[in-house]
Specification:
two-stranded antiparallel sheet, about 260 residues
């Protein structure tokens, strides 16, 4: 099973390198269903793994100064505040058994995975939706960026999702950034958020197998390097559709597995 897990991790890194997104969306199911790591513990692993990979991918853009500092401010600060609140205040308030009735129970980890599956399905449907006429970039819609930052903080805090699939559209449509700067800025924001997420999860850090996390990061980094080098050889639209259908399959699998496991 460990060999299969590492093959899946290699594939996750490949997808991250090809698309610049999707790391956490694939990492969480691998950790939970192939490595049998509980949901909230898998979220913390995801912070370490996705954070390290995002930083590796972001460093070249940072060195070339291809990041937008105002965007990091408008998106990063609200997301970090909400994320830290989720990890330090909200998550500890959620009981391990959310519902405990005769013949039926719903654990916190199961609820995490069900919500995760819904977010994955939503992001896949957005990718598959036909492209409408692009809106003119608006540099005055800072409240929209703040709201996006709050949503990003909730997603990262509760589910460990990096949020590239909502950051990049916000940067392009609201701030009018070019796609390369948007991707590099998104990776920087994800790196910052996951670092804060890791720090805010101090109660679970002692339970982590850091050697396992390091192995996962190393294997995923190999896949990511291959993906980055291969990015120009495959049409972006084809990659996007394949990834979207794969996400839908993952979401359906998670929903079926978790619903069938409810007692």
């Amino acid at each position: 099973m460990m060999a299969l897990s590492m093959i899946a991790i290699l594939f996750m890194g490949l997808i991250l390198g090809l698309l610049g997104a999707g790391g956490a969306i694939l990492t969480i199911p691998i950790l939970v269903y192939l490595m049998n790591i509980p949901g909230q513990e898998a979220v913390v692993y995801s912070y370490a793994i996705v954070g390290a990979l995002s930083m590796m991918a972001a460093i070249p853009g940072l060195l070339r100064r291809e990041v937008d500092v105002p965007a990091i401010f408008w998106l990063g600060i609200p997301s970090v505040i909400v994320l830290s609140w989720c990890r330090s205040v909200l998550i500890p308030l959620i009981p391990k058994e959310i519902i405990a009735l005769p013949g039926f129970s719903l654990s916190r980890d199961t609820a995490t995975m069900l919500l995760f599956a819904i977010v994955v399905a939503w992001s896949a449907i957005r990718m598959l939706a036909p492209v409408t006429n692009e809106k003119e970039p608006s540099t005055t819609s800072k409240p929209r960026l703040l709201i996006t930052g709050v949503v990003l903080g909730l997603l990262t805090g509760l589910l460990g999702v990096g949020g590239g699939f909502i950051i990049i559209p916000a940067l392009v449509l609201v701030m009018g950034l070019g796609i390369n700067i948007a991707v590099n800025t998104s990776l920087t924001i994800i790196s910052i958020n996951t670092l804060f997420g890791l720090g805010s999860s101090y109660a679970l850090l002692a339970n982590l197998d850091w050697f396992l996390a390091a192995r996962i990061i190393a294997v995923a980094a190999i896949g990511m390097a291959v993906g980055i080098r291969s990015r120009q050889k495959i049409p972006a639209s084809l990659l996007k559709r394949i990834f979207a259908w794969m996400l839908l399959a993952v979401a359906v699998f998670i929903l079926l597995k978790e619903i069938m496991g409810l007692t």
